[in-house]
Amino acid sequence: MAGWSSLRKTMRECGVKDGIPVFMAGGVWALKEWSDWIGNPELGAIAFQFGTRPLLTRESPISDAWKQRLLALKPGDVLLHRFSPTGFYSSAVKNDFIQDLVDRSHRQIPFSSECLVDHVAELPIGARKRIVWVTSHERELALQWMAAGYSEALRTPDNTLVFVTSEKAEEIRKDQVDCMGCLSQCQFSNWSQGETGTTGKKADPRSFCIQKTLQNIGHGGDVENELMFAGHNAYRFASDPFYAGGFIPTVKQLVERIATGE
Fold it and tell me: Which is nearest to 229 in space by CA: 238, 217, 237, 211?
């Protein structure tokens, strides 16, 4: 709480009245767990943002499959990751979609376009078998991945190669071509709303088209193969007695429950 007290101190020094709340967002499940914040004169007015619990309401527009998955989550089933094309950290349920991104990032090696001190081993990539230079150890890794079916080496903005199947490479390229410009600075497609229409950087194949996957899961897509947002406290649905027996409240019932501090 010390950091929040410092924030309020700075706000006061800038002439911001105590009645203007500081919002606590992220990791909030029950107000009783924040009782030392509420009514604390050091903090002034405080407000809380609930992001995860409203997902599991009858009025929530997410699919029934998504809601049932939330009810069954265990500790550790949500991953904080940086695969998002926004470049920011994000939380999502560990499903096949997220696991593919994790595995993809692990099948990654740095490369050079010419022979350097450590990059002394030749590695032919692509249909034209163009030569890039890697370390001897990483060349062996690359050959193992390629032999296992991850035959396509995609270049990243960080001068690395990620190895994927030909089917996944085709999907990534198609998604990049189909970009609808939903982000002003998209790492996945390199589209920008500026005058040039591009960030000037390579599109990053370690990311994904967020518009596509959110549209898919929002319209009943497979919860195992699409991005499924959830905060890190989502595992508490399974142990909170309010949700016992698979109970899904209305928004009114949830707000009444939150107001009790539970």
Answer: 217
Give the tokens for residue 161: 């190669």
CB–CB of 213/115 below 8 Å? Answer: no
What's the rounded Cα separation, in Å, for the pair 182 and 18?
37
3-37 per-position pLDDT tens digit: 677 888 898 989 988 889 989 888 899 999 999 98
Helix (H) / strand (E) element for 100: namely: helix 96-106
Q: What is the per-residue DSSP string for 194-209? A: STTSB-SS---TTS--
Q: What is the pLDDT of residues 102-146, one digit of tens each?
A: 999 999 999 999 998 899 999 999 889 999 999 999 999 999 999
Q: What is the Cα–Cα distance from 82 to 248, expressed in whole angstroms?
A: 31
Give dist(CA 78, CA 90) in Å, integer: 10
Report which of 21, 32, 1 is spatially closest to residue 258, judged by C-alpha positions: 32
**What residues does each domain of the chain span?**
1-49
